[in-house]
Amino acid sequence: MGAVTPLVKENKPSGSVKPIVDLTKADMERVNALILSKAGSDVEMIPEVANHLISSGGKRLRPMLTLATAQMFGYQGDSHVRLATSVEFMHTATLLHDDVVDESDLRRGKSSARMIWGNQASVLVGDFLLGQAFRMMVETGSMEALRVLSDAAALIAEGEVFQLAVSKKMETTKDDYIAVIRGKTAELFAAAAEVGPIIAGASAEEQQALRNYGMNLGLAFQLVDDVLDYGGSSADLGKNVGDDFREGKITMPVILAYQHGDDAEKAFWRKAMEDGENDDAALEKARTLIARHNALNASVSLALEYGEAARRALAFAPDTPVRDALMDVVDFCIARIS
Amino acid sequence: MGAVTPLVKENKPSGSVKPIVDLTKADMERVNALILSKAGSDVEMIPEVANHLISSGGKRLRPMLTLATAQMFGYQGDSHVRLATSVEFMHTATLLHDDVVDESDLRRGKSSARMIWGNQASVLVGDFLLGQAFRMMVETGSMEALRVLSDAAALIAEGEVFQLAVSKKMETTKDDYIAVIRGKTAELFAAAAEVGPIIAGASAEEQQALRNYGMNLGLAFQLVDDVLDYGGSSADLGKNVGDDFREGKITMPVILAYQHGDDAEKAFWRKAMEDGENDDAALEKARTLIARHNALNASVSLALEYGEAARRALAFAPDTPVRDALMDVVDFCIARIS
């Protein structure tokens, strides 16, 4: 492993999802039942493909955000269950399409759907789940929730296209990269946390606060994911370490290492990311350069900043178990770096 | 060409889209402006990919249906322009995803987007346009239009997955096939024609009548498309003749020829469609067998029946220029067989 130094441990929070899991347990059972029902179809291939991914053990963090944020404002109806399921379907659709885009062979530690059923099924079942998501939103009758989630649908795709456009381009800046992950990851976290207060009839300020919480949480979450791609293990991550590198995906650690590199290092990065010279030896060298310039630690620091902003967004709220649970989610996302 | 006989000419209507084009001209200019604006993005790849397809000269029949059916009930606002644009974006998104699914190299006579920008861009820009479509629906404030179009989004994808599931399967029945094209094609025609009366505040009966019109028109339209794939020319069709055959897509002419074929012919079809023995000689033989069993004429007859049902659905309406124009669209769709 050469000169790879351990990640920063100081100030690293040790959150847990247990509080939010416990608080949303009853509602999540209804979400899980609705997921199975709405992924159903007489066309057998649809539940096959959908359930392959749905049953593969994602944490369902996003729907839990919707349930918890509705609870936070005392919501008593059942529209939050539909909206939470919509959010999870939007996420699942994105994963199915991402696997086609990234040509991934692994997802959550299992063969990706496209490896089993082909790109075609992944594209079309993703489209089906997105359609089902919008049908459930319509069932809630909340035009405001529809506005937030349709905005998210467009902005997620826009972020993904931006990522594709800057892929293999070493001139990608930090700002470009934050714009990419804001779209591809943080917008759905933000929307998930915003539709809870919306359906509960919270004030515009409260909606905006929860939106800010979700947005900053999402940015922190993605930055941690990017760090794990250079430092975690395949078992933790449900994908292969170095996947981003091999796909020429420019992430924060790479941007920072490149910016601080000398000419020879810059040339290495261009060859690796732009020309595809990205074998195992190149990955090892990339990790060494990232460590040399402290680029993982700097990425983690940035994640901690966004995490802090997410916590600050909740400061307005009374000190309740739901608020604490949402705070813990922030710490949990960052604590995945072990 | 051997034994290929000419298509039925008797009773063939000779409709025109000119009346509907003329009636919706002013509104379509607003739709076209909105298409350009809503396909815009700071991420340059999005308008590039979207405009490649958007500017390639589709007839924009579906948005014209929305505009004309709103006009039919005296609509005076501007939500029909947004809904018509949403319908066209849903269609464009489907085409982008279809090209990936079918691995097509041609679309409307030009290189398909996926050949120029790759599968990735086609998947993601399709997702973006779908998101933009839902945002525009939300802008109209019509929950009922959202219900109809989100139903359509899910049912279109379901039809496409069903097509994938029965692809290369010679046991596909006529009923299976009608279910496929109902989803993949007719649902969007039906929705396009239904949201016009909805936004105009027409009665539930009127909405249902226009929905029936669109549904039957869509079925006729797709059956004609399938016939053209074995009988038209590449220039007319904007794709290659025999594409369906080479992709192992089971369409009505194939189903009918297979059902009436002897054991040797059935063996030929299975080899061609299921095992992929589909070179030019095989295509030629397929056309001969289709002609021998009169399968193109039978498919055209079926299209004529659906066309008749579409016309009947309009019988309730007063004899106005809009109603006549919608009748002419039916005849035009069928008259593409020349």
UniProtKB/TrEMBL annotation, chains A, B:
Keyword terms of this UniProt record: Magnesium, Metal-binding, Transferase
Catalytic reaction annotation: 5 isopentenyl diphosphate + (2E,6E)-farnesyl diphosphate = all-trans-octaprenyl diphosphate + 5 diphosphate
InterPro entries: Isoprenoid_synthase_dom_sf, Polyprenyl_synt, Polyprenyl_synt_CS
KW Transferase (keyword) present: yes
Cofactor: Mg(2+)
The enzyme's E.C. designation: 2.5.1.90
The keyword Metal-binding is annotated on this UniProt entry: yes
Superkingdom in the source lineage: Bacteria
Top EC class, one word: transferase
CDD domains: Trans_IPPS_HT
Record SUPFAM superfamilies: Terpenoid synthases
GO function term, MF aspect, one: all-trans-octaprenyl-diphosphate synthase activity
A biological-process GO annotation: isoprenoid biosynthetic process
Role this protein plays: Supplies octaprenyl diphosphate, the precursor for the side chain of the isoprenoid quinones ubiquinone and menaquinone.
Family, similarity comment: Belongs to the FPP/GGPP synthase family.
Protein name from the UniProt record: Octaprenyl diphosphate synthase
Protein source organism: Martelella mediterranea
Record lineage: Bacteria, Pseudomonadati, Pseudomonadota, Alphaproteobacteria, Hyphomicrobiales
